[in-house]
Amino acid sequence: NTNVLEWASEEIALPYRSPVDNKVHRYFPDFYMKVRENGGKIKKYIIEIKPMKQTMKPKRQKRQTKGYLYEVYEYAKNQAKWKAAENFCKDRMWEFKVITEKELGIK
Length: 107
Description:
Layout lengths: L3 E6 L4 E4 L6 E4 L3 E6 L5 E8 L16 H27 L2 E5 L1 H4 L3
Parallel strand pairs: 5-6
Antiparallel strand pairs: 1-4, 2-3, 4-5
């Protein structure tokens, strides 16, 4: 697409503090893009691709199975990563987006 001026895959490393172990880790978002939008405006994005299920807070379960605890930890880590990405983008007047199968038109 001629409107995509630059792009990279997992090239940006963002520090974030994990709520699971309270340590600083590095997050590599899936994509960086610089695009010419309709009307000619140039805009930069950081894009993360995730299944819709991983973007929603897990429903509380009566039994805390290993699977449920894994979902809770992953959700908490993702929220911390995405907050770091949002702050990074806000400082640069970029936009952070999480894209799921819904936005990609996959059923």
